[in-house]
Design brief:
90 residues, mainly alpha, 56% helix, 0% strand
Length: 90
């Protein structure tokens, strides 16, 4: 949802692995095979994020969001609501 990945896939619950694999028709598994190459992991992440429109939150993006979010905070908008509004605004 937030464009983040867990750092250690072996910490993932087998139930979560099963639930994610089911719609993809992936056979049930108790573990996730981690690619040996770091580049493969990065390629997989990009393959997931790019079609969803995610992009890095770099200083330029932060600079563009800052003028919008500060007035929201001054109005007393709760952080959860600001997060959702920022996603829609962005």
């Amino acid at each position: 949802m937030y464009g983040r990945f867990i750092n250690h896939v072996h910490d993932a619950s087998p139930h979560m692995i099963h639930d994610l694999g089911q719609p993809l028709a992936v056979p049930p598994s108790l573990t996730v095979e981690v690619p040996e190459r770091d580049a493969t992991v990065l390629e997989h992440r990009q393959h997931v994020l790019k079609p969803l429109g995610f992009q890095r939150f770099e200083p330029m993006a932060q600079a563009q969001l800052q003028p919008w979010i500060a007035p929201q905070a001054r109005r007393g908008t709760l952080p959860e609501a600001r997060w959702q509004q920022a996603e829609q605004h962005w």
